[in-house]
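[audit] Reproducing an earlier prediction to check determinism. Same input, same settings, fresh worker. If the tokens differ from the archived copy the diff job will pick it up downstream; this log only records the rerun itself.
[audit] input (87 residues):
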Amino acid sequence: MRDLVAEYEAKESAEAICARDADQLECMIQGVEYKAQGYEKAQRWTDNSRSRLTTKSANELADAVLATGSLDWLRTAHGEKQSWRTP
């Protein structure tokens, strides 16, 4: 287990890089969600997570999330037309 954690932290394999980017994306999306709920200080959380992404695909996903805001990016990805935002 220690070897796996070390690999993850060192970004020594494609799997470790992917897992690390997935973690950062998840944190960034949480920040976007919290900010949409009125917690303005979440912007720093979003920005920090965004800056830690390393792969092209993770950065493209982050761009899509940030361009649409809240969970609208997921709605669009699923081909849904109605916004998930509450009035």
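[audit] rerun output stored. Observation attached for the diff report: The helical segments are 2-10, 14-36, 42-51, 56-68, 72-77.
[audit] end
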